[in-house]
Amino acid sequence: MGIVVLGTGSCLPKRVMTNVDLESIVDTNDEWIRSRTGIESRHIGGKDEQTFKLAAKASLKALESAGVAADEIGLIVVGTISSHMQMPSTACFVQNEIGANKAFAYDLNAACSGFLYGLDLAHKYILADHGMKILVIGAETLSSRLDWNDRNTCILFGDGAGAVVLGYSEDDRGIVGTNLLSDGSLWELLHMHGPESANPELKVEGYSGAFIRMEGREVFKHAVRAMEDSVTTLLAREGLTIDDVSLVIPHQANIRILNKLIDRLKVSQDKVFINVSKCGNTSAASIPIALDDANRQGLIAKDDLILFCSFGGGFTWGAALIKW
Ligand code: ACO
């Protein structure tokens, strides 16, 4: 028996912003962005493409591919750091938008690791209640949380959403294991303030707006090491090696992080799914968007062993293995 992915879906905003478009916003150029990050373009949300709208569209596609009706869903979990409102949660907006009227719903903040944390959570809920079907979503409109004058960050991120429907299966497929970790002591290296406090006593010292701030080089080093460690620990725990894995779907941060990870894991490049060139870094949405992309391209077959790994603000990081 196992907790299986019944269907996948994703949604990207219509507008595509190329590196050349960015040249007219900040002092940068296509060559610098491509060579440092592998990103060529990203999607940017427009009218009616708030985080919950993208999440709802991705969810409807996932439900359709699963052959599951919205009112069969018992729980909706959305990994996001860019809700259009602080309250209610994006998950509640999604629940209303898709008509999942029997579900309870909440958001989860684990930055770029939000989807993997959500997957782990759903796994445990379904183990406790085999009848439950859960929508796990990663959705972001990070374009609304970027300082468009800061060339260190605004070139990296994009908007989009991905979703999976999870349910119980009697056969031996499904989530094999997860390995999640956090380190709050390093929060300053990658963070985003919220709205400024209305209580003067609680104002944050050094408040610099509700934008992503990052020490790029430090984040780079931690990301590679942390993802490598979480993957090798998980594989060893399950008595597996990287050669047993059919496809790696990593968080799409940037190509240099991914290439370093590929070297360290000694995995062949053609076993690693990468779509960062067209999407940029979509934080919690990046793994489910990539998963849906790979799935719809027919790159995943029954019984394949799929490995996910992620790293993000917190720091949060981890890995997960699914037998498809
Ligand atoms: N265009 C042109 N020049 C730029 C740009 C830009 N967009 N951004 C920075 N520069 C300049 C810098 O000002 C600096 O100039 P200087 O030498 O005159 O001071 C020079 O380029 C080199 O800057 P560095 O920051 O040292 O460049 P680096 O090689 O470290 O690359 C990058 C920067 C791409 C951000 C890299 O550090 C990185 O990939 N970090 C990982 C960050 C990441 O992916 N974060 C996402 C969130 S976490 C996650 O998802 C894993």
Q: What overall form do the CA principal axes indicate? A: globular
CATH fold title of the largest domain: Peroxisomal Thiolase, Chain A, domain 1
CATH superfamily of the largest domain: Thiolase/Chalcone synthase
Secondary-structure-derived class = alpha/beta
* CATH class category of the largest domain: Alpha Beta
Question: Brief overview, please?
Answer:
It contains nine helices and 13 strands.
Question: Can you give a write-up of this model?
Answer:
By secondary structure, the chain is α/β, with parallel strands linked by helices. The protein is globular, with a radius of gyration of 19 Å. The protein has a 5-stranded mixed beta sheet with strand order 1-7-6-4-5, with helices on both faces. It has a 4-stranded mixed beta sheet with strand order 8-13-12-11, with helices on both faces. It has a two-stranded antiparallel ribbon with strand order 2-3. The protein has 2 domains: 2-171, Thiolase/Chalcone synthase (Peroxisomal Thiolase, Chain A, domain 1); 175-323, Thiolase/Chalcone synthase (Peroxisomal Thiolase, Chain A, domain 1). It has 9 helices and 13 strands. Helix content is 31%, strand content 25%.
